[in-house]
Specification:
295 residues, inorganic pyrophosphatase (n-terminal core), 2 domains, 7-stranded mixed sheet, 22% strand
Length: 295
């Protein structure tokens, strides 16, 4: 029995990628670890031993050049869907890259490993929900609450998600419904209590209306509400405790959030949504943003 280790991202798409890889390698002995783009280099360089496994699969992580060098080994498969990562695919000389600009890494794995014939209808629905959320298409009614349920878990979220949804999506249980109600109330309270700052920022010769806010939860939902209500081009959200920054743009905005995050906050992501590390550059930018009554 082959010994496989999966290193996956710490979000819903990372969990979906892990589940799909388990479906694909159902006869293998599989272990996993969870990281983020921000922590990948430290996590892998400090303690991980690639030679302990027959195969290591790294999924849903937008690796940079230094990180590629670290894991470019013959027993490694890289599966990722970030557009920026496709531009570095030729940097892999030994590892097998499965890297395509795709709606989600979960869907990329589902299609690449031809899982349609292996899964039941509820598992296929789960894949559709994860893909719908990660692409932020939001055409399915349960995709957004599924992501909220994922982030409501404490501890090992990937393990808890697997326990709840490995057989597919059958709806939400009472625990999930209670968590969703708590999140709904927290979002309502957030918009009643938290200040939102606004300003106009010039980037690449173009002017953008920007909102800035402090967050500790649900950045996508908070950004969506701000963009819808205040018609800004994009939102900068800062998590002081996590020393993280999230950026989300409106549908009419053409500024690439992933590239902006790469330049400003040592991060990356997608055209619509990105994140990175809280630093002086972003703090200086947010100084130009003022409360709405000073806008």
């Amino acid at each position: 029995m082959p010994k496989i280790h999966i290193i996956t991202d710490a979000d819903l798409d990372g969990a979906g990628s892990y589940l799909c890889l388990k479906y694909a390698y159902e006869n293998a002995s599989i272990s996993y670890s969870v990281t983020t783009e921000k922590k990948f280099l430290t996590d892998v360089a400090s303690s991980f031993k690639f030679n302990d496994y027959d195969l290591v699969i790294i999924s849903d992580l937008n690796l940079k050049e230094d990180e590629i060098k670290l894991c470019d080994l013959k027993n490694v498969i890289i599966v990722d869907h970030h557009k920026e990562h496709t531009e570095l695919i030729n940097n892999y000389k030994n590892a097998k890259p499965i890297i395509k600009d795709y709606t989600s890494c979960t869907k990329l794995i589902y299609d690449t490993f031809k899982l349609e014939g292996k899964l039941n209808k509820n598992q296929k629905l789960l894949i559709k929900l994860i893909d719908d959320y990660d692409s932020y298409t939001l055409s399915l009614p349960f995709s957004k609450p599924l992501n909220q349920v994922f982030w409501s878990y404490t501890g090992d979220r990937v393990n808890k998600f697997e326990q709840d949804f490995k057989d597919g999506f059958f709806g939400f249980n009472q625990f999930h419904k209670n968590a969703l109600k708590i999140i709904e109330n927290k979002i309502d309270s957030f918009f009643k209590e938290e200040p939102i700052n606004f300003g106009n920022i010039k980037i690449g010769g173009n002017d953008y209306n920007v909102a800035g806010v402090m967050v500790t939860f649900s950045p996508n939902e908070i950004a969506e509400n701000i963009i819808k209500k205040y018609k800004v081009d994009f939102v900068i959200m800062i998590n002081i405790k996590g020393k993280s920054v999230y950026m989300r743009r409106g549908k009419e905005c053409t500024l690439n959030m992933g590239k902006l995050a790469s330049k400003l906050i040592e991060g990356g992501g997608h055209e619509d949504a990105a994140g990175g590390i809280l630093n002086d550059s972003i703090i200086n930018i947010t100084k130009f943003l003022k409360p709405i009554n000073e806008k």
